[in-house]
Structure formats: C-alpha cells, structure tokens
Specification:
five-stranded mixed sheet; membrane; alpha+beta; Sig_transdc_His_kin-like_C; ATP-binding; transferase; transmembrane helix
Length: about 450
C-alpha cells in the first residue's frame, strides 16, 4: 500500500468515525432534552388537571352533594374527553379501584410511545389517584426521521469527503512523488536530475537538501569518472611506453648473444640498450615523484628566489651549454612561499622542455615577479610552440607534443604532469600559453611571502 493510500484511509476513517460519534452524541443529548421537556410539560399539565378536579369536587361538596362513584365518573369523564383531543389520557382510581375510564383501562394509546405519570389528589381526596398519559409518538417519529437523515448524510458525505481528501492528499504528497522519481533517475545513472520544488515548507527544505546532496554526488561521480579515465589512460600509455623499449632491448640483446657481429655493431646495439635504459629510468623516477606528491603532505616555508634560481641554473647549465641555449634570469621579488625542492623540480622540468623545443642559439627566460598580489614564476622560450589542441593536453601523463623529439631525449611525457601535481600541492594555478612556431610560456602563481603565513 502506498503512503498516500495509508494517509487517505486513515484520515477518512478517523474523520467519519469522529463525525459519527459527534452526531450520535448530539442526537442523544437532543433526545434527552426533548424527553425532559415533555416530562416537565406532562407533570405541569397533570398538576393543573389534578387541581381542577380538586376544585370541582370541593364545589360539589359545598353544594351539599354526596360524592358517589357515578358522580366521580361524571367529573372524570368531563376532563378525560376534553384532554383526549389533545392526546392526553387520564385515569382516576379511588383506593386502587378504577373509576375512569370504565373500559377496562383501554384508552386507545400505545404505552411504548407515551409518558405516564401518577399522583394523588390534594387532601382531603388523597385516597384518589390521578394517572396521566401523554402520546409522544410524534417525538419518536421526529427522532427516526433524524436517524434516517443522518444515515443519508453519511452516504453522501463519505464519498464526497473521500474525493476531497484524495485530491488534497495527492497534492500534498506530490513533492514525495517528484522526489521518488528523481531518486529513481539518479539510481539509474542520471546524476544531473534535480527536484523542481520551490515551496517554503518542510518538503521545500527536503528538496533543497536533496538537490545539494545530488550535486555533491554528481561531482563525486564526475571526479571518480575522470580519475578512472586518467588512471586507465595512464595505464595504457605506460604499457605503450614500456612495450616499445622492452621489445627493442630484447631484440638487441638476442642480437648480441646469438649473432656473429663486429665490434662496431656491438657498440651500436649496446648504446641503444643504454639509451632505452636511461629512458626507462627517467620514467620510473617521474612516476615515483608523482606518487610521492599524491601521498606526502606539503610543508611550505619561505623560499629565497635568488637561491632557487641559482640551484636550477646549476642543475641545467650543462644541458644548456651542450644545446647552445642561453638562459636569461630576471627576478623582481625576493621570496615566495612553497617547498624549495618541489619548486626547483618544477622549474627544471620546464627548462628541460624548453631546451628540447628550442634550436641552438635560442634564448630561454626564467622570470619571477609580482602580479596582482601573487608571486609568478615563469619559464618562457622562443622554440617550436604548440597548437591549441596540444596545449590543452600538455599536462596529461605520457602526452608528448612531438613524440619523435621526446624519444630522442629520453622523455616519457611526464614532466608537465609532474609540474601540475607540484602546483596542486602548493594550491597554486598553472597557466600555459603557446603559439605554434613562436614559443611557449608556462607560469605558476604562488603566494608572496608577506601575504601567506607559515604552514604550522
């Protein structure tokens, strides 16, 4: 049974039961009041008749006439006939003997619908008893008519009330139906669906909180989906990266051990195995760096920009010299907040990418400056640059804008991915701007030393 069915039946049963009990109690009270009124009226009339008979008997005695049974019957008949037309029956007894009526007590009235009262006449006639009977069949008929009317009202009000309650409860429980339908669609995988309810009652609060929950769930599912795609892409790329050098190394190893080759060919095969080993080593180190960034909390401190740049230059000086690249340094801020080793790794990766993208004689600029209250570290080259699609995917693991050039230098395509992880660990943002044939600029936006307190 559905929730609104339960509410409808419960409210209908309770309402009809309360209505019936209330009406029955009202009718019972009304019947009691009517009976009390009729009883009082009958007692008043009986007293009036008894006084009238008393006065008549006194008048007869005053004239010196003896009260015989025939005379008493005559007096009683005069009153009996008069009140019979008003639905009132009288009986007169003397010492228990019936004087009137002389029909054996049959006055044509049914005792079940009458009020019967008895009282003695005033002294000196207290040996006589006057019985009063009043017909109240009309009151019974009125009560029966009310009962029939009540039954008819029940038959009419019941269905009408059920219809009105149905419409009201369906309207009141409509938000529950919307919520149920929305939860069903979300359970089926449509996390973008929301409850369209703008009332200010409890249902409105429930809908608002449900929509907030759905938004959080949608965001979580989106994040999980993106993470799953990233992990799958990383696994696919890693498998691809490992397959090619391992296959080549296996072939050259078999060539060295099974073929009768000269020294020059042995050196060539050995150099290829060595270059592929270096590339696999770089791949392993980059993956290790990425894993450390994901699981190790970052403790930031004040980093001297001059010292940071000097360490980067010492690391990259040999490669710069071998490739004929000039590195220009320009810094206008003294310090930043961050991790010195990670920031150095960030800049080293960018400079190495810039070296690989630049021709001999080109210039790479290493900059540090203040922009809108933020410290900016930038590496800018005038190399080959990238297209808009390549720029969009540059930070993906294992992505290489120029695979042939990257393999030549032993790159695994993880340098910019590591840079992005370093920026996220610093809660900083990274911007990449590149124009094909003109060069690339990558910037990280950090907090200045005087704007960010040390991390406890």
């Amino acid at each position: 049974m559905r929730f609104w069915h339960k509410i409808l039946l419960s409210v209908l049963v309770l309402f009809i039961a309360a209505l019936d009990v209330s009406v029955i109690m009202v009718m019972k009270k009304s019947w009691q009041l009517n009976m009390d009124s009729e009883t009082k009226r009958a007692a008043s009339e009986q007293l009036l008749i008894a006084n009238n008979i008393y006065e008549n008997l006194d008048s007869i005695l005053a004239r010196g006439i003896t009260l015989t049974p025939v005379l008493l019957l005559s007096v009683a008949e005069s009153y009996g006939e008069h009140y019979r037309t008003q639905g009132i029956g009288l009986e007169l007894r003397e010492n228990g003997r019936l004087i009137y009526p002389n029909t054996g007590g049959k006055d044509g009235m049914q005792d079940e619908h009458t009020i019967r009262l008895s009282m003695p006449l005033p002294a000196p006639y207290q040996h006589m008893e006057l019985a009063y009977k009043r017909d109240i069949s009309g009151l019974y008929a009125q009560q029966q008519e009310l009962n029939r009317f009540f039954v008819m009202i029940n038959w009419i009000v019941g269905p009408v009330l059920a219809l009105l309650l149905y419409l009201l409860i369906r309207q009141l429980t409509k938000p529950l139906k919307q919520l149920s339908e929305t939860t069903k669609t979300i359970a089926e995988g449509n996390y973008s669906n929301r409850v369209e309810l703008h009332s200010k009652d409890e249902f409105g609060e429930l809908a608002l909180n449900f929509n907030r929950m759905a938004s959080v769930v949608e965001q979580r599912m989106t994040d999980l989906s993106d993470m799953a795609e990233d992990k799958q892409r990383m696994v696919d790329n890693l498998a691809h990266e490992l397959r090619t050098p391992l296959t080549s190394m296996q072939g050259f190893a078999e060539f060295l051990t099974s073929a009768n080759i000269g020294q020059e060919e042995q050196i060539k095969a050995g150099r290829y195995i060595w270059s592929e080993t270096i590339r696999l080593k770089n791949l392993a180190f980059k993956l290790l760096d990425l894993s450390v960034l994901r699981h190790q909390p970052l403790v930031q401190s004040e980093v001297d920009v001059s010292g940071l740049f000097e360490a980067v230059v010492q690391t990259e000086q040999q490669k710069l010299t071998e490739n004929g690249i000039l590195l220009q340094i320009d810094s206008s801020i003294p310090t930043v907040w961050g991790d010195a080793d990670l920031l150095a790794s960030f800049l080293v990766n960018l400079i190495e990418n810039a070296i690989h993208a630049s021709k001999p004689g080109c210039q790479i600029r290493l900059l540090a400056y203040n922009q809108n209250g933020e410290a900016v570290l930038e590496v800018r080259d005038s190399g080959s640059g990238m297209t808009a699609e390549q720029s969009k995917r540059a930070f993906e693991p294992f992505y290489r804008a120029d695979p042939a050039r990257s393999r030549t230098y032993g790159n695994a395509g993880l340098g910019l991915s590591l840079c992005r992880q370093i920026a996220e660990a610093h809660q900083a943002r990274v911007e990449l701007q590149s124009v094909l044939g003109e060069g690339t600029s990558i910037r990280i936006f950090l907090q200045l030393h005087n704007n960010c307190p040390p991390t406890p």
